[in-house]
Design a protein that fits this description.
single chain, 631 residues, Rossmann fold, eight-stranded mixed β-sheet, alpha+beta, 35% strand
């Protein structure tokens, strides 16, 4: 029986997706299996990360503890925990110490002292030692500690600017890790190193020399993994132009490429312990996530032959993350979602299919309440091809005539990507009668190295051109109302918002910036170590490129902004401090441009608290009605 839809103006549809729903949803960031089939995942409730334990026979899951928030402490975080031999090893959010806690009973015990910060703990196969990444006073290293906390941790590898992905060989005699140096970012150029450990009596293991086996200044290596049988070290490299899977034979010293599709099997390593593949328990197969055009699929590859086949986890899942292969049984855990499917923890079991183990929301809306993403491409202002995702307006109860208003959501990074995941903010707008465009402008990941490198030296030019051309393309195709277009983004996306409003006034009716980069000089001076030299490739090196930095700093041309703006900022933001947003606000005020400014106490770079998110979406909804729908 078809449901009769009510005609109502686009942008004014009553929506079942409320600000409260968005503010109260859970967020899953990582998961890991213990040796007995216990699954542990990290979920964020408001601004607190908790570890959830699901015993093997699916009796009720529970929080590991409620007193300790869990969050990795290096760079942007990630790598907040691991499990093994009946214990969880996690990084406590405030002290950044690594703790050990039984998955069954007992209290957490600290293993590392209270200085610096830890991340990416990795347990040896015998359960005696823990590798981890440590940072202290600006110096990063790979360190080791025993799992009983009897020894003071030992610095194992140091000298590079950054470390990631420490890994144990199954026999405990070798370790591997990834390192890189300024001015590179991990997607520019990294090296994969391997070292033989020695075990001095009564001391923690150490090594004499490390050998670089893959990568260089211009090749990005990602996620090394030793095979369970100890024969291979797998890794992902973009030397072919795409992040592809390779294996290195530890005995013959030969490298072999296993994947060849024009697709991405790796990701930009913004955080520690990002994973896209894992070995089967016997090492005969590798299960890997393939990304093409923003859509994810799961594949099985035979280690020996390289033969591959797709594993069906259901059409509803078009975004797959943080794969974890169980050491017992044929089970694969994933954080999964889709355009119309909110984030879930799912487990695929051979012969059994997919089971949902945890949902991020109550899921009391049908899939038809949500808009599905469509991969699109368009010619940019210079004729080059740009990619993105388009969502039409979608609401089960309402329809309208003509072309809908358009919300353009610009991703941050800028080395990032909007994929076909469940994005509550997209559905917030589509369910109210907006079309949504998520441009993956040149410089975005997911479309090969050449596309990613196009933004070098052109930040503030190509991202702006690709965003403006995308909006105009949709208007020309009749998929958006060219008179009612809005641009919104945070951080680097907020920078693109500001720069677009300055360079192309009148294209967008309004702009929404969250903690947007306004001053390229102070961004470099104030930002954290991880991004301290990021702008070298995006803009150029200082002081030589000072003119470019001035030209690409929205704060120096803020008087050119004529379109209404809403600006949102976290008071404790260390990456883009509040003075950047406030300088833009002063210019808007001076020039009589309609604006509103909201500063959130206790929020940093990105909003976490439920009450912040609720207020943010309520405010945005009201702002759009005033300046776009009724203007």
């Amino acid at each position: 029986m078809s449901h009769q839809k009510t005609h109502k103006q686009y942008g004014l549809w009553p929506s079942p997706i409320t600000p409260q729903m968005i503010g109260q949803g859970l967020n899953f960031s990582d998961l890991a299996w213990d040796d007995d089939g216990t699954l542990v995942w990290r979920e964020r409730r408001s601004n607190k990360g908790l570890l959830i334990v699901q015993p093997p026979h699916r009796e009720a899951f529970r929080a590991l503890n409620n007193t300790f928030a869990v969050s990795g402490g290096v760079g942007y975080g990630g790598g907040s925990f691991t499990v093994g031999h009946g214990h969880a090893y996690f990084v406590e959010q405030s002290s950044k110490r690594i703790y050990r806690q039984s998955l069954k009973t007992g209290s957490p015990t600290p293993l590392t002292p209270e200085f610096g910060a830890g991340a990416a703990p990795q347990i040896s196969s015998d359960g005696k030692y823990l590798l981890f990444v440590h940072t202290y006073e600006g110096q990063d290293n790979v360190a080791i500690v025993d799992t009983m906390g009897k020894h003071w941790p030992r610095k194992l590898a140091s000298g590079a600017d950054f470390y990631m992905h420490p890994r144990w060989h199954p026999d405990g005699r070798q370790v591997a890790w990834i390192s890189w140096r300024h001015p590179n970012m991990p997607w520019d150029g990294t090296t994969l190193e391997i070292a033989d450990l020695t075990y001095p009596p009564g001391e923690l293991p150490t090594f004499e020399t490390a050998t670089t086996i893959a990568g260089d200044e211009n090749t990005s290596i990602f996620q090394p993994e030793f095979s369970p049988d100890g024969r291979y070290l797998a890794y992902i490299s973009d030397k072919s132009g795409w992040w592809q899977l390779y294996i290195y034979n530890l005995e013959s010293k030969e490298h072999r490429q296993l994947t060849t599709a024009p697709a991405e099997y790796g990701k930009p390593a913004w955080v520690q312990e990002t994973r896209t593949y894992g070995f089967s328990a016997d090492g005969d197969k590798i299960f890997i996530i393939r990304s093409q055009g923003g859509f994810s699929t799961l594949w099985e590859i035979e280690t020996a032959s390289g033969r591959e086949r797709q594993i069906s986890v259901g059409e509803e899942y078009t975004s797959l993350n943080q794969i974890a292969v169980s050491p017992v049984g044929d089970k694969i855990a994933l954080i999964a979602s889709g355009g119309r499917t909110p984030m879930r923890v799912i487990v695929y079991e051979k012969g059994q299919g997919v089971a949902v183990w945890r949902r991020s929301t109550a899921e009391n809306l049908s899939g038809a309440a949500y808009a599905a993403p469509q991969a699109i491409s368009w010619p940019s202002l210079d004729g080059e091809t740009t990619h993105g995702l388009y969502y039409p307006p979608q609401n089960e109860g309402f329809t309208a005539e003509g072309s809908p208003p358009l919300m353009v959501l610009v991703h941050g990074g800028p080395t990032s990507q909007r994929g076909a995941a469940f994005h509550p903010e997209v559905q917030f707008f589509t369910s109210r009668g907006f079309a949504v465009l998520e441009p993956n402008y040149r410089g975005s990941t997911g479309y090969g190295r050449a596309y990613r490198d196009m933004l070098k030296g052109k930040w503030g030019i190509l991202d702006v051109a690709d965003t403006v051309s995308g909006a105009r393309y949709l208007a020309a195709e009749g998929l958006a109302d060219g008179e009612r277009m809005v641009i919104m983004g945070g951080s680097a996306g907020g920078f693109t918002v500001l720069k677009t409003l300055e360079d192309y006034p009148g294209v967008f009716k309004a702009g929404i910036s969250m903690y947007g980069v306004a001053n390229q000089f102070t961004l470099v001076a104030d930002t954290h170590k991880f991004e301290a030299r990021y702008s070298d490739s995006l803009l150029g090196s200082l002081p030589e490129a000072a003119d470019i930095y001035r030209d690409r700093s929205p704060v120096f041309a803020a008087d050119k902004i004529k379109d209404a703006m809403a600006i949102f900022q976290g008071e404790d933001d260390k990456v883009v401090p509040k003075n950047q947003s406030e300088a833009i606000v002063e210019a808007l005020q001076r020039n009589g441009v309609p604006y509103e400014y909201h500063l959130y106490p206790g929020e940093g770079h990105g909003f976490r608290k439920s009450e912040t998110l609720e207020h943010f979406y309520e405010t945005v909804d009201r702002f759009l009605r005033q300046y776009v729908i009724f203007a």
